[in-house]
Design goal:
Number of domains: 2
Radius of gyration: 18 Å
Shape: globular
Structural class: mainly alpha
Number of helices: 14
Oligomer: single chain
Mean pLDDT: 87
Low-confidence stretches: none
Order of helices and strands: HHHHHHHHHHHHHH
Number of strands: 0
């Protein structure tokens, strides 16, 4: 079976889409927050690769066409933002302050963790862009001397965590303002978290998509500063 799959150029794409579809089906049937399609799909792919003893490098090469969809998917987040353009202009200062504080919190926490666990420069650089979207974060990690593929895995894990806990955290901390919810979710858990923000409401989704873009740009500028000073 492994040889058959390896001989097909598109088996990685089929496996990825199939795993995500199965995860979506299970998530809808179960109705549980932890049954996130991306999380379940990732586990299914890992299980198949492990059982068939297929090297990750072969799967990555076969599934590479899907990677090209990351950039247009990120750009498409501008649609809900455009629909709330007036809201953006009205609350520009609050939005910028919220995103900036979120980015600084993320970078400072990773720096503290790196110092506490005595991580080397490569490991720390890999973790620094954990809260920005994959299309941006992997490039940041590569520029800083980190491991792009591992950074991608950390970014996805961060997004899944945000997606699963966003609604609960908003209730626990009594955050009721739609703008605050969207900015917080988008800054902390990028595009995957934005999917949850869109479920919560149009304003939340629009502000979260804005936060994804702003957080990516701000992180691209500040991450090298943190890498040079502390790592």
């Amino acid at each position: 079976m492994a040889e058959i799959l390896s001989s097909s150029a598109a088996w990685g794409v089929v496996l990825t889409i199939g795993a995500f579809g199965l995860g979506t089906l299970i998530g809808r049937k179960a109705g549980k927050a932890w049954c996130d399609p991306l999380l379940l799909g990732s586990l299914f792919v890992i299980l198949v690769l492990s059982l068939l003893e297929i090297p990750f490098s072969e799967y990555k090469a076969s599934a590479s066409p899907l990677s090209y969809l990351l950039l247009p998917a990120t750009v498409s987040l501008a649609i809900p933002l455009y629909e709330k353009w007036e809201l953006l202009k009205r609350d520009l200062t609050a939005i910028l302050a919220g995103v900036l504080s979120g980015v600084l919190t993320s970078l400072c926490s990773i720096t503290a963790l790196a110092l506490l666990l005595r991580l080397d420069t490569v490991q720390a650089a890999t973790l620094l862009p954990k809260s920005v979207t994959t299309a941006i974060g992997m490039d940041i990690a590569d520029t800083l001397g980190g491991i792009p593929s591992l950074a991608g895995a950390v970014i996805i894990l961060t997004g899944i965590t945000g997606n699963l806990t966003a609604q609960w955290l908003c209730k626990a901390w009594k955050i009721t303002d739609p703008l605050a919810k969207g900015i917080g979710i988008g800054t902390a858990s990028h595009a995957i978290g934005t999917a949850k923000a869109l479920e919560m409401g149009r304003v939340e989704g629009a502000m979260s998509s804005l936060a994804v873009a702003l957080a990516g740009v701000i992180t691209a500028f500040l991450a090298p500063v943190f890498a040079d000073l502390w790592l």
